[in-house]
Amino acid sequence: xxxxxxxxxxxxxxxxxxxxxxxxxxxxxxxxxxxxxxxxxxxxxxxxxxxxxxxxxxxxxxxxxxxxxxxxxxxxxxxxxxxxxxxxxxxxxxxxxxxxxxxxxxxxxxxxxxxxxxxxxxxxxxxxxxxxxxxxxxxxxxxxxxxxxxxxxxxxxxxxxxxxxxxxxxxxxxxxxxxxxxxxxxxxxxxxxxxxxxxxxxxxxxxxxxxxxxxxxxxxxxxxxxxxxxxxxxxxxxxxxxxxxxxxxxxxxxxxxxxxxxxxxxxxxxxxxxxxxxxxxxxx
Length: 284
Known about the structure:
Layout: H1 7-14, H2 20-31, H3 33-36, H4 41-47, H5 52-61, H6 67-78, H7 95-116, H8 119-131, E1 135-139, H9 142-156, E2 161-164, H10 167-174, E3 182-186, H11 193-204, E4 208-214, H12 219-222, E5 226-230, H13 240-263, H14 265-283
Parallel strand pairs: 1-2, 1-3, 3-4, 4-5
Helix pairs in contact: 2-5, 4-5, 7-13, 8-13, 9-13, 10-11, 13-14
């Protein structure tokens, strides 16, 4: 388990939504990560002026199996190079600086998203998608771009996929779906009301639901059978956060597609060859 990372990323993303005692522990770990991984739950509770019980509750709130997993994930983060902070642009800034900042933010978002993806959830999602008669992808605003990207990728390997940004069209399509179909709801915040309602509708139809949101509990994730998470991608004045969150969503879609392609490699190659042939035919 030494390869597991993402502890510090998850703590940063969850810290402000935690109950007071758990927040104190999270803040202590973020300020003293090297020391914290050497402590017992009792010692960490004393250091943070809380309790060992609060430490265990924190681990549960973060979605970890226990304190040992939290320490392993933080230790994995410490083995990496120092995390580069997200940077926003400045007025009349040089284009070279902007290139560097946007690139750094994108790379950081992708790395953090990779660190917090749950492999078991990914396997469950791929299994559901592999056997699904139809796949519905839904997102609002920038998240619709990720939904449309998923549609395009799945169509290329002969999956019956449709992306919607119109809640009424999505609802009427979901109305006739069943247990083997899959509905993917995409929302960076996890609070998008339309996405939550559509996943709730899909649950009523016993349809398999997958959510792609930032880490943590949310209205959208509460209605999903399978939860996939992206880095929170800190917001910035010029919406570089929105840019990074879109990249994170596309990264998760790419991972889903590649895993699905790998599981059904020979068939996927055939489908991709057919689609390439169709495009060549159109070009003459």
